[in-house]
């Protein structure tokens, strides 16, 4: 999906800013932004594509349910469903889905007992992976629209059925507002959606995806409940040469990145090619840029004391969960004094959101090392983690999704 | 320093491997690998260049002593000495140094009281920064040779003198073997080198650089003691599609990256463009690749149980400080059982070096997020850190260098 010439350009940013690059990285290591972009491009251009989604895993698997691989008609793919074990098989299924317009479910048993070395091509893939492979069609458009509006959306799709009334691929999109939308394909019966409502709510809340089994009068139906979340936003306030590495790594880590130069006038989009958007908004007006506060993370790094203080003041007026402030502790102590002298001292609720010195404790002082430290912290905070070494922790590597129930 | 056509290519790796790319990133966010490469390129080609080195800082400064900016004759620069405040001034000094062949020292006072807004161009730079700006000449060749041999080296350079016998730029290179080498420029007198020997030892040990003041019979001399350390090595064992992001971020973080595919035969260099070297070495022979064990970090991620176990076994035969093992705890538990069944159970000393699950606890599961977690952990371990949030710690952001003494 590298040829996007027919895709409408992202709207030019207001406030004099520009959008120097389109969203998400291409290729195998694409984040969800990249996969969503590939879906959107296919829907907008009508160019055929297929999408494979992990619906269930057993045993050791590299990707979790909900992981997506979008295969364009020209064979270019965006995203990954394994660590590289099944591309050829998935490419074949994708072609077939585009050709016959039908959704299909395939189980890949990569355990050694099941001949995993055949599927795994000796690469040591293992676990059992269920994939939904389907053409990209209008049934996905409501979900993409919701993501474009920065709202989480749940897509419920039949992935198994012994009911004659429900076929694999039947789909209902469940919006944050509570709407049930079916387009281009049959929707799921209300009885099924009612039966999985609690699971949907739990999965939506945790941002996870899972397959839920429902017993109906007409038979057993397996529904893949796929939670699609808009990409988190990284707002970088600064314009010096330490900003581009933060923007680049932030984008690679899956954030939608906006660089705010704070200078007024027009934005220097060329200086920040990795940013999704470059804006000249001045420090006191930063709050006006926050339109998805629950998942917006800010890094304040203009190196100018007054600009940084005004940026902090503006951002603290919003409910965003994290404001990283570049610079030593002493500088922030001076900033707190300035707030206090103004008669608006920072309270505990403010202080808990200001992270300074910004970043994880990695010990590097080179620009990219500092950027690595900053983006790692933002990612950890977004995922409710504190950094630190996994080997020193006791918990599982992946967040556990709410275990799906079985409804009788 | 982007035109390297005349520079000899890095030697093709033995063992069927190739060197798909030259070392280090270019540009402002270059790590030391990039700066060293720029120095080496100028020395080998004879193309004029200058190098600016931070020798001292007071107050808030973005880079520490030892940070380098190499300016090629065509104006291209590699590295950074500030967050972007002094480029124009440094470019002028670099041109002058190339023209007259002389080293010079310049103090930039970026504090507001000293008119920092003039130097800082309103960008909020501050602190006082001393720079040594000099032509790249043969006086630097012994240090580059030591780095090429993966040895730490100390370069002692006069940066201030009221002695008529010692001029700014006089230089002696101090090798790990204890040699004192002067080339192309007058060396420092033995009396001066003897007087700073303890400082040199401490700075070499901590990997830091600092200016030391020495009182001699002929007057006061300021010596910049610059510790240059070879880039740490990141050895990635694996060949699947999750390897390239680890190689790419590892390189960006300043590591010399070798990808080992473990397949024998020839290496797939094209698949890992960010690696400095791609080798097909098989898992039982990994130890043979470790030639700088104190600063070699391994990540074992072939996804193949047997290959990973053999890789681990081989790497544990070396004294490298860190072996990250991809995969869940349960898999490593099974691996430990396999070691025990073989009659060679892993001891505490082994276990303390095996980091599994690999990476910092960032919570992401996308390929680049996993790579970010892995490379962040390697960087933290290299710097003796644990990767938690700086805001939750009490210490300073930078490692403190051993405070230089004043010798009377």
Sequence-ordered SSE layout with sheet pairings:
The structure is a homodimer of 408-residue chains.
Chain A: H1 32-45, E1 49-58, E2 68-72, E3 77-79, H2 87-100, E4 104-109, H3 116-119, E5 128-135, H4 141-148, E6 153-161, E7 171-174, E8 180-181, H5 190-195, H6 197-206, E9 210-216, E10 219-228, E11 233-237, H7 243-252, E12 256-260, E13 277-279, E14 296-300, H8 305-316, E15 322-325, H9 329-341, H10 348-351, E16 354-355, H11 367-382, E17 406-407
Parallel strand pairs in A: 9-17, 11-12, 11-14, 12-13, 14-15, 15-16
Antiparallel strand pairs in A: 1-2, 1-5, 2-3, 4-5, 6-7, 6-10, 7-8, 9-10
Give a structural overview:
- Two copies of one chain form a homodimer.
- Chain A is α/β, with parallel strands linked by helices.
- The first copy, chain A, has three domains: about 100 residues, no CATH class; about 90 residues, no CATH class; about 150 residues, 3-Layer(aba) Sandwich (Rossmann fold), CATH 3.40.50.720.
- Chain A is built from eleven helices and 17 strands.
- In chain A, the strands form three sheets. Chain A has a six-stranded mixed sheet. Chain A has a six-stranded parallel sheet with strand order 13-12-11-14-15-16, sandwiched between helices. Chain A has a five-stranded antiparallel sheet with strand order 3-2-1-5-4, sandwiched between helices.
- In chain A, about 55% of the residues are buried.
- Chains A and B meet through helix 7, helix 8, strand 16 and helix 11 of A and helix 7, helix 8, strand 16 and helix 11 of B.
């Amino acid at each position: 999906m590298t040829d996007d010439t027919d895709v409408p350009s992202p709207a030019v940013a207001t406030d004099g800013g520009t959008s120097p690059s389109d969203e998400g990285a291409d290729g195998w290591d694409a984040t969800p932004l990249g996969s969503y972009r590939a879906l959107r491009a296919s829907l907008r251009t009508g160019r055929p594509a297929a999408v494979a989604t992990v619906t269930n895993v057993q045993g050791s698997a590299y990707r979790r349910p909900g992981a997506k691989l979008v295969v364009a008609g020209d064979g270019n793919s965006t995203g990954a469903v394994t660590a590289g074990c099944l591309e050829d098989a998935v490419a074949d299924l994708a072609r077939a889905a585009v050709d016959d317009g039908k959704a299909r479910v395939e189980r890949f048993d990569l355990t050694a007992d099941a001949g995993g070395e055949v599927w795994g091509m000796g690469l040591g893939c293992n676990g059992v992976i269920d994939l939904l492979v389907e053409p990209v069609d209008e049934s996905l458009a409501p979900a993409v629209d919701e993501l474009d509006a920065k709202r989480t959306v749940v897509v419920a799709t039949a992935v198994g059925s012994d009911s004659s009334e429900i076929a694999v691929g039947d789909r209902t999109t469940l919006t944050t507002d509570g709407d049930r939308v079916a387009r281009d394909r049959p929707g799921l019966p209300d009885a099924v959606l009612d039966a999985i409502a609690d699971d949907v709510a739990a999965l939506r809340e945790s941002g996870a995806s899972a397959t839920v089994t429902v017993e109906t009068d007409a038979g057993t139906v397996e529904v893949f409940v796929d939670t699609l979340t808009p990409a988190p936003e990284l707002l970088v306030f600064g314009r010096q040469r330490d900003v581009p590495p933060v923007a680049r790594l932030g984008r690679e880590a899956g954030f939608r990145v906006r660089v705010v130069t704070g200078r007024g006038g027009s934005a220097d989009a060329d200086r920040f090619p990795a940013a999704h958007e470059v804006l000249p908004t001045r420090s006191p007006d930063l709050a006006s840029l926050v339109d998805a506060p629950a998942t917006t993370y800010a890094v304040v790094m203009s190196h100018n004391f007054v600009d940084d203080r005004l940026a902090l003041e503006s951002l603290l007026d919003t409910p965003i969960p994290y404001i990283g402030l570049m610079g030593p502790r002493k500088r922030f102590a001076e900033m707190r004094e300035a707030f206090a002298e103004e008669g608006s001292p920072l309270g505990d609720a403010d202080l808990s959101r200001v992270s300074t010195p910004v970043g994880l404790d990695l010990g590097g002082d080179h620009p990219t090392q500092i950027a690595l430290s900053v983006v790692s912290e933002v990612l950890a905070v977004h995922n409710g983690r504190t950094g630190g070494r996994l080997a020193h922790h006791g918990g599982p590597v992946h967040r556990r999704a709410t275990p799906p129930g079985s409804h009788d």
